[in-house]
Design goal:
It is built from twelve helices and six strands. The protein has a six-stranded parallel sheet with strand order 3-2-1-4-5-6, with helices on both faces. The radius of gyration is 16 Å and the shape is globular. Strand 4, helix 9 and strand 5 form a beta-alpha-beta unit. By secondary structure, it is an alpha/beta fold. Helices cover about 50% and strands about 15% of the residues. The chain folds into two domains: about 150 residues, Rossmann fold, CATH 3.40.50.1000; about 60 residues, DNA polymerase, domain 1 (Orthogonal Bundle), CATH 1.10.150. The two termini are about 15 Å apart.
Length: about 220
């Protein structure tokens, strides 16, 4: 296993993107700030430490950031029972192990949410390691999470799989090639413009392409 397959979780392996957008909308509404859901959707994939300022500005972050993240967490907790794994998520993880990747699940989500997602996909049995927002100081699009996942794998090569432009940005800043799936609602051109080397319609198409992904992996030595 000389190549790490770093897999985003939210929006890539489990269907959470629009649940998160609604949870954020309700959180902002609670403090009297209206952010259109479409704008929130465009920011999903960032961690909560990045999202508030990105969609509402630095002043809202400074005045209400911590409270908004608390409100979002409460709303997201209520939606958690509705979350489902995407079709093909378990098959992808099993195939990745067969292809001899070191699979690392790297999520910007809260630790308890990630625990729930791991239950949905049997992640503890199928992954080499997993990380959440608690394991880094800054979440995507900052590179910290991808860098930490690569270190956990301890491999010479790595490749990132995500569903958002923020995943691609984090990978690029780490020097790791990225591919993407359409499950987060981003367009092909957007994802490739942010560095995705290939874009797949769903996890089944990605699984069939696994043998090709090792060829895209960087030759930079693990850190």
């Amino acid at each position: 296993m000389d190549t790490a397959l770093i897999l985003d979780v939210d929006g890539t392996l489990v269907d959470t993107t629009y649940h998160h957008a609604i949870a954020w909308y309700r959180a902002f509404d609670e403090i009297g700030v209206v952010v259109p859901v479409w704008r929130l959707h465009r920011a999903i994939g960032m961690g909560g430490d990045q999202l508030v300022a990105a969609v509402a500005g630095d002043e809202v972050e400074q005045a209400h950031g911590e409270r908004l993240r608390e409100l979002w967490k409460s709303e997201a907790d209520r939606l958690l029972p509705e979350i489902r794994a995407f079709d093909g998520a378990v098959d992808l993880l099993d195939a990745a192990r067969t292809t001899r990747f070191a699979v690392v699940l790297a999520s910007s989500g809260k630790p308890d949410h990630v625990d729930h997602y791991l239950d949905l996909i049997g992640g503890r049995e199928r992954a080499h390691a997993w990380l959440s927002s608690a394991d880094v100081s800054e979440t995507k699009p900052h590179p910290d999470l991808v860098e930490a996942a690569w270190r956990q794998a301890g491999t010479t090569h790595a490749i990132m799989v995500g569903d958002s432009v923020w995943d691609c940005d984090a990978a690029r800043r780490t020097g790791v090639p990225a591919v993407a799936v359409r499950t987060g609602g981003f367009g092909v051109d957007e994802l490739t413009d942010h560095g995705a080397r290939a874009v797949y319609e769903d996890l089944s198409e990605l699984r069939r392409a696994l043998p090709d992904l090792a060829d895209l992996a960087t030759a930079v030595e693990a850190r």
